[in-house]
Amino acid sequence: MKKVVALLLFVVAILASCSKEVLDEVAPADLNDADRLVLDVQDFPFANLSEYGFFKGRMADHRPVPGVLPFAPITPLFTDYAHKKRFVWMPAGVSATYSGDHNVLNFPDGTVLIKTFYYDHVLPADEQRIIETRLLFKRNGGWEFANYVWNAEQTEATFDMTGSYTPITWTDDNGAQRTINYRIPALAECQTCHKDMGLSVPIGPKPQNLNGPFNYGDERTYAPAAKNQLQKWAEMGYLQRNFPKNIVTTVRWDDPTVDLNTRVRAYVDMNCAHCHRENSHCDYRPMRFAFHETTDPANLGICVPPDDPLLPQHTFIVARGTIGRSLLHYRLSATDEAVRMPLLGRTIVHDEGLELITEWINSLSPPCE
Amino acid sequence: MERSVLLFLSAFTGLCSFAQNTCSTALPIAPGGTYTVLAVDGTQATPANCTGSGGDATHAEWYVFTATVDTTIRISTDYPGASTDTRIQVYTGGCGALTCYDGDDDSGAIYNYASIATFYVYAGTIYHVAFDDYWTDAGFQFTVSEYDAPPPPPDLISFTALDVPVDGNVLACLDMNGDHRDDIVGTSATNVNIFHQLSGGTFQSVNIVTEEAENVASWSIAAGDIDGNHHNDLLYGGGQGATFMMATDDGTGFVKVNFEEYIFCQRTNMVDINNDGHLDAFSCHDVDANVSFLNDGSGNLTFGQGMLGTTCGNYGSIWTDYDNDGDMDMFVAKCGCDPVDILMRNNGDGTFTDVAAELGFADGHQSWSSAWGDYDNDEDMDVLVGSSASGYHKLMRNNGDGTFTDITAGSGIDLFTGESNEWTTHDFDNNGYLDIFGGGGMLMNQGDLTFLVDETIPYNGPIGDLDDDGYLDVLNASTIHFNNSTGNNWLKVALEGTWSNTNGIGARITVMSASGPHIREVRSGDGFRYMSSLNAHFGLGTDPAVLQVEVRWPSGTVDVIADVDINSTLVVVEGQFNGVAEHAAPALTIFPVPATDRLTVSGAHAPNSAVRVFDTTGKLVLQGQLAANTLDVAVLNCGFYVLEVATAKGSVRQAFSKF
Q: Which ipTM value was assigned to this complex?
């Protein structure tokens, strides 16, 4: 019986959050929580991740202390099948403001974005292995990176911006064994994706990506407690309440109930748009992959000839109906690092993502001329 | 009734279809005919693809054309209402020995993916025509016509393809075993596969297993003899850094030297950056300052950044002596975050100055490489900065006084819209003038700074002479595109450095023939990604003879060779041809004369300087350090030697004898 009620609540919460309407009657955040984490961004970066105190108990469990709020974008970036946990923290008394559905929230100084990359079922012991925790923090109006590499004992992570590799073998969700040489980025690699006109920026925390449910759970009962993330942020005092009720929102790239084209738009937004938009690493190429820009098929590369086809048969970036002529498909199916896309964060093919792109290109007609 | 007619039709056409299914049952076709293919389900041919577009198909439909007169034939699947993505292969040689003759994938004008093969035929020759199903097995119609006025422009250059089973990423084509024949090099993280060119255009495959490279040759590869052991070392330019594979002294293996520093490698090169006589290495960095690897003279490399381009967006570096002052300058084609190209003038003292703005190169051109060569044979380096994304190309003529003039307008290049990451220059038709390779075409230099475009060519890849016929061939992965002779004359020059690096990288070679001078530089790394031959190749048109060859070595040595056979490979050993050191070196005195077991050296160097001793063949016979200006040479046999002493301003050399 209890289970049924919990389930029902969960469904209701999801339905509510899917309405795209942010409710006003949210409870005010308790900014005076005595347990709330206090940090001074001027002291950053610390030598060890534990010094921040983001998590209580065993650090590897990532149980956030008050003020450290988990979040997730509706469609995540693919990074070699790594699992991720993301958190945001802000100092007391400040909050982010809305500045457009598809723009990163305007965060206050002192904000810390925390993202941990890990794998489950890592061999030989079939255990969890956390590899790195990346921080983006805002100081004096600008964003800075601090990357922490976890030790083998999973007890501590130490500051390292030079870049390194972690070889890893694990059993994936389909029961297949995979091996990669996981790349932990150097500072300049972070900036390759996280930049706008040369300045460092976050990518994920945009209203279009956050305007969906997150299961915050109940600390005591472990009951699911899904809630719209923007609403939750507002409750926490992390977001000013004057954001609009109707936000143009992305979809889950793997949601079978959503039409193929919208799923592809969500996928390329999160995986490709950080480089293929104005003022970014590859803005000299014609594609514009951001969700709000791909309502124009030309911005997806549909029937657009590539600058350099790599191979003569790639007559278009996306050739309607023909994956063999689509440079986009060729790059997503490549592992040669000079051919593959996305440029960084991927060394193996995202099989399910490639399936999505294949299905989509095959569904398009008539052929490009 | 209707049904029975349909049945009858399908039975009839089914027979037709069956008859086309193999080469030996190919249906005859003739000009004026229109033919219907219901489905592509016959037997595939070998070689499977003569078009250069796409891979191998699985099925084909076969036709045969027997020419009765010399004429031009056009086979076309392009017609109003066409909707099938076809591909045509044309063979000679008969079914037992099919040889690619022509082919087409996408020349359709009415329907983009339709194919139009237009080819010259000779009376009495049989041409087999195959339509394959690489794109689709759906049916289509095609027409055969004798192609009348206007005649198609003749291919300015033609190639014949041959597949070779090279393992790994095939990015390099250069001599790896000192026989001056270009070899094919494929690399992977743990293997170097060398296809050594033997005489007669055959190859011998050698696999060398290596330690696992942290960085593979994905973004680029460069080659040269860093450690002076007469075997070429490789530099793998990867997306996260650089790994060197240093050839062992016996040439049968490689020792890995990895650099931990993060580099988003783009173009890599080997060149003597600081004029100290030792071959250094260089890598463009996409997202940070460019990287140099300076050689201490013993093959030990030191990572460095700064001076050689300090902002991001570095894609295509090329080292060239644009101002004819004897040292190598560097141009970087740039793109992305800081697209303003740089031209770093070598000041000769180990420093560089960016002169791009004053010489008209500092534009945001969005280029990944540039092609430096003497396009008008006036003994200075001109350049095409080819577009990757900006939509325009820029041909700059070197005025010979350190300035350049933009001569793109009217050159033919202004009308060429092809773009690519690769832009290189070689004389592909051996007419004596450097051509340009990029943008999906070859821009054939007509000798008057105008260019005609031939787009029926391979795509960009490593370049070398893989059948030793004096015509430069192109590698596309593991397919060799052999350059078919135009009948023009040629000369190849292979260098063997003694004081300079083994391959003479950085040397300037001038060949004089009746039509005037032709110059080349020996470069490790041109274009964006590939490593091409280290032999200098010269087309000489109809000039009947080579009048003189001059080699100006990086060391300053100048060799002048008068008696050279045309259509041959000339090997020049540094100093062999009465080499004259033109650059006055600081005085270096060695005594006693002749030397005994210990010699004493005086000069403007530190008394504990690093030294090397070479024999008269240029072989390194002794390496070490002076001790209070003395060197123990007891181990040397009696004979003539050259002593090289490292100084702060470069190395100095002096011959000595020992008895």
A: 0.88
